Every structure is written in C-alpha cells, then in structure tokens.
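Tip: read the tokens left to right.
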C-alpha cells in the first residue's frame, strides 16, 4: 500500500492485524483501532493500554499510531 499511515480495525480482533503486518514486513506507519466506537461498552484505560502493548510487539513505537476503531460502519440511529 502506498500510504503514509494506514488505519486498521484491531479492537475486536485483539490486535491480530499488527502481527500480520509484521509477518509481511509492512514498512510504513500503522494506526490500529483500540476502541470499537460502535460498542456501547467503553474499554478501561488498562484494556486499551494492553492492546497497544500487544501492537508494540509487532510495530515499532515510532511507527504506531493510536486510533479509534470505526470499522467502516455507520450508526443506525
């Protein structure tokens, strides 16, 4: 992908996509979502931090962005 930063769904997949990016040697910055904004449940700070730590196992800190997880959905209300 020719992009500076890609935003990815990662909250519901428990950051699985970060590992897949690393496996394929993705060289650019990535912004995995850490909070599913369509869920009525708000994650705790520790839950979001745990997802980020998992992301850091695969993506170096200087290339990791923190994003909400929008999932390309629209609300029905």
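Filled-in amino acids:
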């Amino acid at each position: 992908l020719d992009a500076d930063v890609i935003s990815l769904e990662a909250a519901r997949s428990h950051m699985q996509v970060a590992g897949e990016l690393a496996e394929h040697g993705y060289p650019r910055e990535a912004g995995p979502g850490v909070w599913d904004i369509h869920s009525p449940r708000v994650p705790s700070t520790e839950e979001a931090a745990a997802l980020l730590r998992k992301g850091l196992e695969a993506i170096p800190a200087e290339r990791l962005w923190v994003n909400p997880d929008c999932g390309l959905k629209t609300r029905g209300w």
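Strands lie at 5-8, 29-36, 67-69. The two ends are 34 Å apart (CA to CA).
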